[in-house]
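dumping this here before i forget
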Amino acid sequence: MNKRILVLVAVVTSFGPFSMDLYLPALPELRDEMGAGAAAVQLTVTACILGLGLGQLLAGLVPESRGRKPVLLVGCPAGSSPHWPAPPRPPSRC
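structure:
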């Protein structure tokens, strides 16, 4: 296997745990900023986990027919493209 593809697969595999590590500590601030209840904030965790699970299901089925490389080369930019136009958040004051 090509070394670059191996590194790309390793990075993509780490997205799930990395997203949870970033997301969970932000839950109290998310609740305060959005003015939402604890149940609504916990639903966002459920949605994140469901998204990761469905993504793995699709990412497992599609490469079986098309191969890993084309799926990664299309999927990574497509998955990150919604975040490109987002403006940076101003720093919070503690």
